Amino acid sequence: MKNKFLAIYGDIEAKIKSGDIKPDTLLPSEHELTDLYHTSRETIRKALHLLSQNGYIQKVRGKGSVVIDINKFDFPVSGLVSFKELAQKMDEPPKTIVSKLQLRKPDQFVRQQLNLSSKEHVWEVIRVREINGQKIILDKDYLAQQFVPHLTEVICADSIYNYLENELGLTISFAKKEIVVEEPTEEDELLLDLDGFHNVVIIKNYVYLDDASLFQYTESRHRPDKFRFVDFARRIH
Length: 237
What we know:
The protein is an alpha+beta fold. The chain is 28% helix and 32% strand. The protein has a six-stranded antiparallel beta sheet. A two-stranded antiparallel ribbon has the order 1-2. The chain is elongated, with a radius of gyration of 22 Å. GO terms for molecular function: DNA binding; DNA-binding transcription factor activity.
């Protein structure tokens, strides 16, 4: 006979897939599920753990188990595309909110990321991406002024890469990427709709021109329940 927790897992999984249990809704409490399935709390915890492992629910501090939208946005890890290019594939057009645009001397951290001297300047661009009415991506861009002499809020709200390539004639060639999971900062809490999630997925990009000049450092900070980070790999023989 199938383990009880697997049967419970399968029942809840089927209801999530069929839409009987909607995304962003709370599952009943462990106590309520114990009564519903006539089983022990330990069995319920095993079923919930498996649901969490397989991406169906997310444990949210102070709330319980929230059902995740299984139709996540695919975010290509290995590609180098602008958010506007990704947005063209979405059913509902997302909204970009420019929270900050300023030209300033970089602090020590930004200088280290872009290999700049203390006398050089960078554009700091902070943008919030709102999808389906929820603010779920915070993009923090730092672009060396020596390569990007001019920026406006209109450009940042549309597409910086479109401006760089088609107006400035720059050739964006490749990027080094790093993916980390961290606790949200105060800025994340302020600008994103984290809704109790206590981690953000951060993609750090070091972006180079075709002459191998490093011109941009980016942190793209994502709410963890809305994205699936995908890649394609081929084994080399």
